[in-house]
Amino acid sequence: MLIAAGILVVVLPLCLWVVRDSPESMGLTADGTLPTAGAGAIAIERVSAGEALQTLAFWQLAGSFFTCGFSMSLLSAHGIPMLTDHGYSPMFASWALGVLGGSSIGFTVMLGALSDRLGRRPVLAAIYAGRVFIFAGFFLLRDNPAAILVVAVLGGITMAGTGSMTSALTADIYGRFSVSSVFGLIFLVHQTGSALGSWLAGSLFETTGGYGAAYVLACGLLVAAAIVALNIDKGARRIWRAATASATS
To answer: CB of 117 within 8 A of CB of 244?
Structure first.
C-alpha cells in the first residue's frame, strides 16, 4: 500500500513532468538536433496492430518472445524444486535463483550498450543461445554448489535483455509510435508462453517423475528462438509508413 501511494504521489508526477511523447514534441529531432530550416512537418512512425499481424517480422518477434516466457516461467516455478531434487538444500537453491536474478540487473545495462554496437538481432540471438547453456548447467550439475553459483552469475547475461531487445526491434521495424500496440500483442504471446511453461513443466514432472523432459523441451525451444531471432526482418526494413504532423503542434 505504501509503495502504491509512493508511486502515485512521487513517481507519477515526475513522469508527467519529465517524460515527453517524443523529441518532436519538444521541437527536436530524434538525435537531439534542431529541425532543419523550413521543415514544416515531421514523420510519425506508425503501423497499426492489424497491419503488423500480417507481417512475418511480427511472428518472428512474438515466437521468439514466447520462448522467453516459457523458459523463464519454467525456471522461476520449478528451478528450486529441481535443484532440491538434485540434492541441494532449499536455502541454497533459493540463493542460486536469487543470484541469477541479481546478476541480471547489471547485465541489462551492458547488453543495451552492446546492442548499440553490434545490433539488436545478434545480441538477442546470443541471449537465447546462452540461456541453453544456463539451463543445461542447472540441470546437469550435481553435488557442485560452487559451479551452480558460477552458472547463476553468468546466467544473468541471458536472463536480461530479451524484453528490451524485442521492444527495440519492434520500434525499429514498426515505428516508435507503434510500440505500445504492437509490442503489447507480442507481450501477450510472451505471457501465453509463461503460463504454458510453468504448467507444462509440472505436468511433465508428474508424468515422467523428473524435470528432464521439461528442460530438454525448453532448450530445444531456445535453440529455435536463437535461430529465429538472428533472422528477424533480415532485410532490416522499416515497415512503418511516415505520417506527417506539425513540428510545432
So the answer is: no
